[in-house]
Automatic annotation (TrEMBL), chain A:
This is Trafficking protein particle complex subunit BET3. GO terms for cellular component: endoplasmic reticulum; Golgi apparatus; TRAPP complex. Keywords: Endoplasmic reticulum, ER-Golgi transport, Golgi apparatus, Transport. One of its GO terms (biological process) is Golgi vesicle transport. Gene3D superfamilies: Trafficking protein particle complex subunit 3. The lineage of its organism: Eukaryota, Fungi, Dikarya, Ascomycota, Saccharomycotina. The keyword Metal-binding does not apply. It is found in: Endoplasmic reticulum; Golgi apparatus, cis-Golgi network. The keyword Endoplasmic reticulum applies. InterPro entries: Bet3 (IPR016721), NO_sig/Golgi_transp_ligand-bd (IPR024096), TRAPP_component (IPR007194). Belongs to the TRAPP small subunits family. BET3 subfamily.
UniProtKB/TrEMBL annotation, chain B:
Pfam families: Sedlin_N. One of its GO terms (biological process) is endoplasmic reticulum to Golgi vesicle-mediated transport. This is Snare-like protein. It comes from Nadsonia fulvescens var. elongata DSM 6958. It comes from the Eukaryota. One of its GO terms (cellular component) is cytoplasm.
Length: 193, 168
């Protein structure tokens, strides 16, 4: 699958086969989830991050089914982590969030890469609370890491996903690092040529 | 003749002040000499106090003035927000906007006769800045709290600077 065609597939599905909801409603809903978690865990932002990741994981396990159903016939099986990364960024994120993060920073062995987010619809209007720790400890969009992890696990890839920089914290870019731990079944050898 | 914005203030629906910013703190053309610094600080404080008082006085006029305005849907369809000149005092004209949530946005500028000023885009921009401030999910909606956000501060400063830099 060439790069251009993957992008076109994503655009096409987004335009035609996806019901859309209001962006502010979505942003405010996610914002209230995070704010409530912060209140419940009384400022223990590590637990908030963990909880967001767990929620995302459960979402990812289910979301992959929806994704595969929507893209059935349009995309072929991925033969390498590089293919998966392309589909993830240009079709999956496009179809569900209407964004296409850039795939970058591959390691030499091809088992790790980054997704760089130019825009993050989850974090519109958000300003992290001013208590000193939030801006160093809280990964606001951590639910996305969980979603990626859960979804990829259902297609036989065990990965670790985490944010390494976030625009909300004052960094220049929002970057998620994805590491392939192992392939879960031996049916199709993937990614290690 | 330039008509500059002197201050912007936001008052909550319970009439408690949320935000007052005077353009003296935005103006970047002040001399840096030490002797002037204290004088400037006094001036700034006095101005802020004056603008505070003006905002309070304007509150009385808001309901009477704005309720008298014609229904926007029937007259000018382009401007769907209504603002009105509330009062002129001490060379400063105060314009106000009353939102449907009873939040008031006040803009004070130099008073001049026969000047036709369109503040609709300015009020719209201020309202949008306020909306993006309110949508912050970490904000506690206690209305005794004044607006502390740097982002909001910067956006208001940018709006005022934009207006003041336009040649009129």
């Amino acid at each position: 699958m060439s790069q251009k065609s993957v992008r076109a597939i994503g655009e096409d599905i987004w335009k035609n086969k996806v019901d859309k909801i209001n962006a502010e409603l979505f942003t405010l809903t996610y914002g209230s989830i995070v704010a409530q978690l912060c209140k419940d865990y009384v400022g223990d932002y590590k637990r908030v991050n963990q909880q967001l990741d767990l929620m995302g994981y459960r979402i990812g396990l289910r979301l992959i089914e929806d994704f595969l159903a929507r893209t059935a016939g349009a995309i072929t099986r991925c033969h390498s982590l590089k293919d998966s990364a392309e589909v993830l960024s240009k079709v999956a994120f496009k179809v569900f969030l209407n964004i296409t993060p850039t795939v970058a920073n591959w390691t030499a062995d091809g088992r790790q890469f980054s997704l760089i987010f130019e825009e993050n619809p989850l974090a519109e209007f958000v300003e992290l609370p001013d208590d000193g720790r939030a801006s160093t400890e809280l990964w606001y969009s951590n639910i996305l890491c969980g979603v990626v992890r859960g979804a990829l696990e259902m297609v036989q890839m065990e990965v670790e996903a985490m944010f390494i920089s976030d625009g909300l914290k004052g960094d220049e870019v929002t970057e998620m690092r994805i590491k392939l731990i192992k392939i879960l079944e031996d049916e199709v050898p993937v990614g290690e040529d | 003749m330039t008509v500059k914005i002197k201050f912007v203030s936001i008052i909550s629906d319970k009439n408690s002040p949320l935000f007052i910013k005077s353009s003296d703190t935005i103006d970047e053309n002040k001399p840096e000499s030490e002797i002037d610094a204290n004088v400037l600080l006094e001036q700034e404080k006095n101005n802020l106090l004056k603008y505070n008082f003006l905002s309070h006085i304007s509150l009385d006029y808001i309901f009477t003035q704005i309720h008298r305005l014609p229904d926007p849907a029937s007259t000018n369809t382009l401007s769907n927000i209504n603002y009105a000149l509330l009062l002129v005092h001490d060379g400063i004209a105060v314009y106000g906007l009353l939102t449907s949530t009873n939040t008031k946005i006040l803009v004070g500028m130099d008073a001049h006769e026969n000047v036709d000023i369109d503040l609709v885009p300015t009020f719209k921009a201020l309202q949008r800045a306020y909306i993006s401030y309110v949508c912050n999910p970490f904000l506690s909606l206690d209305d005794k709290v004044t607006i502390q956000s740097k982002k909001f501060d910067n956006s208001v400063a940018a709006i005022v600077r934009g207006w003041n830099n336009m040649a009129r």
